[in-house]
Amino acid sequence: MMKVIKMSALALAAQLAVVAVALAACSSPPTRQEIGIASGAVVGGVVGSVMTGGSTIGTAAGAAGGALVGRELTKNGSKK
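Now predict its structure.
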């Protein structure tokens, strides 16, 4: 039997925004900082999901925090 997935309007809007940003970013090669932000968001999202037992809010918070960390670590002039 097929599992029905329910999605709130807010979750759908957030996903569409992510897709739009991702497509816009494809117009030129990503910078070092853009790669750091994206990598941080992915790692943070996974960590947030694991720490909160798959909570959507935990995943989103982890992704946001990871993106901020990734941005800070790849700022111009920062040490490696």
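The first helix runs from residue 9 to 25.
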